[in-house]
Amino acid sequence: MLQPQPQPKPQPSPLLQPQPPPKPHFGAVEETFRIVKESLSDEVVKATQAVYQFELSGEDGGTWFLDLKSKGGKVGHGEPSDRADVVMSMTTDDFVKMFS
User: Fold this and answer.
1) Residue 63's CB: how many other CB atoms inside 10 A?
2) How far apart are the first and last CA of the chain?
3) In this predicted model, what pLDDT tens digit does every residue of 25-46 receive, in sequence order?
4) How confident is the model over 49-86, as pLDDT tens digits?
5) Separation between Cα atoms, residue 26 and residue 95, nearest integer Å
6) Which CATH number is 53's domain given?
7) Angle, vertex CA 99, rays to CA 95 and CA 100, nearest 5
8) How many domains does the chain have?
């Protein structure tokens, strides 16, 4: 008498498996914020005392912030941890020109 052979478990298609989101690439916008961050100081923060949020459209767009209330200042992608005092909407090209 023949015994049935165990069948391997079917594996889900790799296309159906959850994939991690791709790491965003921000190019000129990210580079501009890197330069801004390097120029921040406690003196600039003390003199400014404001949080800026940038809603950027176009290539490499998204929400970015410049926090000039926190010690030493902060920049980053996404919304600031504190409510923005100023929200500016512009293209990424205009943003880069504004800081050039």
Assistant:
1) 15
2) 83
3) 558 999 999 999 999 999 999 9
4) 999 999 999 988 999 999 999 999 999 999 999 999 99
5) 13
6) 3.30.1050.10
7) 110
8) 1
CA atoms lying within 13 Å on the CB side of residue 89: 1
Q: How does 16-54 read in b/e, with b if 16+ C-beta sit within 10 Å?
A: eeeeeeeeeebeebeebbeeeeeebeeeebeebeebbbb
pTM across the whole model: 0.72
Which residue would you say has higher pLDDT here, 12 or 70?
70
> Checking DSSP bridges between strand 62-67 and strand 51-57, what pairing results, if any?
antiparallel
| Assigned token pair, 4 | 């049935």
Q: What's the domain range around 89?
A: 27-98
53 inside domain: yes
Beta bridge mates, 76: 65
HEC readout, 9-59 = CCCCCCCCCCCCCCCCCCHHHHHHHHHHHHHCCHHHHHHHCCEEEEEEECC
